[in-house]
Amino acid sequence: MAYTTSYDGSNSGFQVGQNLGHITNQFLQPETSLNQACLRDLRTTDPYHDKDRIQNTNGGLLKDSYCWILDSKEFQQWQDDESNCLLWIRGDPGKGKTMLLCGIIDELTRLFGDTANISYFFCQATDVRINNATAILRGLIYSLVEKQIKWIVSSRNWPDIEERLDTTQTAPISLELNEASVSEAVSKFIQHKVRSLAKVKKYSDETRETIWHHLSSNSQGTFLWVALVCQELDRTPRRHALKKLETFPSGLNALYSRMIDQVRNLEDAEPCKRILAVMSIVYRPVAFDELASLVDLPDNLSDDSEALSEVIGVCGSFLTVREDTIIFVHQSAKEFLLKERQNVVFPGGIEAEHHTVFSRSLQAMSKTLRRDIF
């Protein structure tokens, strides 16, 4: 005689069986393995690794560029008042929202240590894995403890976002309304970047002061503008630094316009424009070795990884390569190409570019895939 009893409660998966006097206990699906499977399903990317990657991509986190917000009345109100559950940091592209959040996370982690669980998730519009509401919820649940959560959200100054978040339980911080604090933070960022450039390039005191003055006068309180200009100066021989400096216009969009005009005058203008076109429409970052399959390039480029790296490097500072993956330096760079320079990047239209990528993807697959004879 034999019998089997199953339990569907908290010990789901546990069975007891008796057969010919022998008793066996079998754990078909231990609860720990179920928990691990749940975590694997929730995790699209690791938020902690995303934070490190973002900081490294932006050249590291400078404390002087974010510490101002810790002393703001809105932040302290959010931190101390239990009725204020949401701190909303909003600002235009390139104002330093992401790095501001990285700094806040570090400071809260240092302040509370193991006494509180600090959960976070970084969205990136260019990465399909982490650019939607479902991914956000999955990422937060992955690292969330239900005991307490206060929330920090950053966004652009979009009316539809303001409509949803502008409530009495929200402590909003507008970077535009805190212009003095942001400007001071940008000024410290400029000092840091110029000091580093001067050390590497061995600028004279006069050259260093001229660069500092130009950046301070034209940055318009935008970290990204400063970073892009300093990146260009880092590639420029010391003797041409001041002449190069005069070519940088004030404002982010004006700088992007100058960058795309430079691309059009390059010897490798056509390959650059093709690469920018593909990168502007793909739904995720492209691995370096995938690019040749997606972009119609001359043979001397598609078969030469070193030469291809050089072309990507001169694509007007729109793109960068991190861990063998090609990404935009900032979402605003992609938006500029899609909205302001479609005629340059997509002479045949965006739809035609989608069709080209689709066709080339099929061609690439046909080289390796074979029909199943069964």
Secondary structure tally, helices: 18
In what order do the strands lie side by side in the largest sheet? 1-2-3
Principal-axes shape call: globular
Q: Unreliable stretches, pLDDT < 50, 5 or more residues?
A: 1-29
For the termini, the CA-CA separation is 47 Å
Number of strands: 9
User: Would you identify the CATH architecture of the largest domain?
Assistant: 3-Layer(aba) Sandwich
> Sheet bearing the most strands, described?
3 strands, antiparallel
Count of individual domains:
4
| Structural class computed from helices and strand pairing | mainly alpha
Strand content: 5-15%
Quaternary state of the chains = single chain
Mean pLDDT: 80
The CATH topology assignment of the largest domain is Rossmann fold
Descriptive key words:
4 domains, 18 helices, 9 strands, single chain, mainly alpha, three-stranded antiparallel β-sheet, 374 residues
Characterise the protein shown here.
By secondary structure, the chain is mainly α. The chain has 4 domains: 2-42, no CATH class; 47-177, Rossmann fold; 181-250, no CATH class; 254-366. Helices cover 51% and strands 11% of the residues. It has 18 helices and 9 strands. The protein has a 3-stranded antiparallel β-sheet, with no helix packed on it. It has a 3-stranded parallel β-sheet with strand order 5-4-6, with helices on one face. Helix 12 (269-281) crosses helix 16 (331-339). The longest helix is centred in the middle third of the chain and has 23 residues, at 179-201. The protein starts with a strand and ends in an 8-residue tail after the last helix. 24% of the residues are buried. Residues 1-29 have low confidence and may be disordered.
